[in-house]
Write a structure and sequence with these properties.
3 domains; Glutaredoxin; Lipocalin; alpha+beta; 407 residues; 8-stranded antiparallel barrel
């Protein structure tokens, strides 16, 4: 029972004594294979997430994204380690078709969100409404709390009553959202192990009104949107600039995840086109960028491209952080260099990269030519959940890298 100490401390959150759902002998060997649903309870809201279980493998499903997790059963309890992020699921097994559990962020103090999971053929959101409103494909979105708001692009694709999409901001995107249009009501949700989101709104002609955005345990925001095919945010290549008063120090030494000392002036990187990726393993947008960069590296490394990730991490000590980074490399089959930059935070990253005027987002990518001149700084990342924005980025980045390699 070593996995379940935290869960037992919060056992009063659950109706685990429901005799209609309990199993007779207190143990199960396996769970019902097929479609499941997880319903997280937070801030007075239920956030449903689609999933499947197959031979003790739990798969979270968010539109095109699938996240596979090993489902460990021990007597009447379960434990699920979430890949890439410092979080997990644990709880008790009520039957082969129902679970009660908690979602825990391991490095956050008292971050526990209860959930129920059950075998079902129902969709993520359920609707009996025959007619639905139509969602536009692109919106000018304002999200905020009180007087503080930020802008985003709402990107949606509707098929009947079903809808998928994302919100793109100047520092990244909300990744894969999936949901339903029920009459004039819009509902979207996602869970990737780091973020748990729920978006709801009312559809009124070309607007989305009375929007509520729930993020994890405490995030609670309002949002509104107006359909606008021409709305754009500021150019990601113009958000961060070179600090002309500070020359890049390519001799600065970093600790590699293999335990040696590495700098950008090392022979391996000389006369090479280089991308320095400022990132963290805790960051889902960084994971999307890492997966793309890994493909880019495989395609162009033999022609002279090097990619160097500098990770700013959360963790109690350097040993645990290096262990985490090594696992991250292995889990995602990363072939390019990964270095440790320091503790997470924009301020910490700027101390390492003072030749940037600011760091406003993880990830941020710095593109160097063969002569070590900075040719581009790209803030944030629009991942595959943004559709055409990601597709266009892949094309333009590939062309840019090819041009640098030919210089």
């Amino acid at each position: 029972m070593k996995y379940f100490i935290k869960f037992l401390l919060v056992g009063l959150l659950f109706n685990s004594c429901d005799q209609n759902n309990s199993h007779a002998n207190g143990e199960v060997d396996s769970l019902q294979n097929g479609s499941w649903k997880l319903e997280f309870s937070t801030q007075g809201h239920q956030i449903p997430i689609g999933a499947s279980i197959n031979n003790n493998l739990l798969t979270i499903i968010n539109d095109e994204e699938t996240i596979e997790m090993d489902f460990i059963i021990e007597s009447d309890s379960f434990y699920v380690s979430i890949p890439n992020f410092d979080s997990h699921l644990e709880g008790i097994i009520l039957s082969d078709k129902k679970l009660n559990g908690v979602y825990i962020k391991d490095l956050a103090e008292d971050y526990i969100i209860p959930f129920t999971a059950y075998y079902t053929q129902d969709d993520r959101f359920v609707s009996d409404t025959e007619t639905t409103s139509l969602i536009r494909s692109k919106y000018d979105v304002s999200i905020g709390r009180g007087e503080r708001t930020s802008k985003a692009i709402g990107l949606f694709k509707q098929t009947g009553k079903y809808i998928v999409g994302s919100f793109a901001t100047e520092t990244g995107d909300y990744r894969f959202l999936e949901g339903l249009v029920d009459g004039n009501k819009l509902s979207l949700s996602t869970f990737d192990g780091s973020h748990l989101y729920l978006f709801t709104a009312e559809i009124k002609e070309d607007s989305l009104i009375n929007g509520v955005y729930i993020s994890g345990k405490t995030g609670n925001y309002k949002w509104v949107a107006v359909a606008n095919e021409n709305f754009e945010l500021r150019d990601p290549e113009k958000l961060t600039s070179v600090n002309k008063d500070v020359k890049p120090d390519l001799n600065l030494k970093f600790l590699s995840i293999d335990g040696d000392s590495v700098s950008l002036s090392d022979q391996k990187f000389k006369n090479k086109v280089k991308i320095v990726q400022i990132m963290g393993t805790w960051c889902p947008n960084c994971l999307d960028e890492t997966r793309y960069f890994n493909n880019l590296y495989s395609k162009y490394n033999q022609e002279g491209l090097e990619i160097i990730a500098v990770a700013f991490e959360r963790g109690p000590d350097i040993v645990s952080i290096l262990k985490k980074l090594n696992k991250y490399r292995g889990d995602n089959n990363i072939n390019y260099t990964i270095l440790y930059g320091g503790k997470s935070g924009n301020k910490n990253a700027l101390e390492v990269f003072p030749y940037l005027d600011k760091i406003m987002s993880f990830p941020t990518a710095i593109y160097f030519d063969k002569k070590n001149n900075i040719r581009k700084i790209y803030t944030g990342f629009y991942g595959p959940g943004t559709g055409k924005y990601f597709e266009d980025y892949v094309v333009t980045t590939g062309i840019f890298i090819e041009e640098l390699l030919l210089e």
